[in-house]
Design a protein that fits this description.
150 residues; mainly alpha
């Protein structure tokens, strides 16, 4: 499916892809199924733009960085784990901390991606964070996160 088609828009002069056409579903993290460079970039940018406090559309420099991550062989699972980790760190801050501004670029995640490349996270821990983002921490006054969690 075209990136824009799932958001309800199509570039001028292009037809929306027919059902069943377009990008195939991406493989799960750790899967041995091959992903094309285009699928990788699309998956990274789709996850990035679905996160809270990120732009609705990726910019050219975000697209270039996603392509560079693919060229460097960074697994999608590592990028997704970085998204979960950063979102958790931003979400579960002390209530008296100053509010954080919006994330304006995919480059914001690079230090965490590099950290996770050196020391891959425990998948159980990442799933726990994902679950906590979905349910929130009512006892700490942190409501559940609405939207997509990669």
């Amino acid at each position: 499916m075209d990136r824009g088609a799932h958001r309800g828009w199509v570039r001028q002069g292009q037809a929306a892809p027919a059902a069943g056409q377009g990008r195939s579903a991406e493989p799960e993290p750790g899967s041995t199924e091959a992903v094309t460079a285009r699928q990788y970039v699309a998956a990274v940018l789709d996850c990035y733009t679905a996160l809270p406090d990120t732009p609705i559309r990726a910019r050219k420099n975000d697209r270039c960085l996603a392509a560079r991550l693919q060229e460097q062989g960074v697994p999608l699972g590592i990028v997704r784990a970085a998204f979960v980790l950063v979102t958790s760190r931003r979400r579960f801050r002390p209530s008296d901390a100053d509010p954080l501004g919006p994330i304006r670029s995919l480059h914001y995640f690079v230090p965490v991606i590099e950290e996770l490349r050196r020391t891959p996270p425990d998948p159980v821990y990442v799933e726990l964070l994902r679950s906590r983002l979905r349910t929130g921490f009512p006892q700490l006054g942190v409501p559940q996160l609405t939207g997509t969690i990669p």
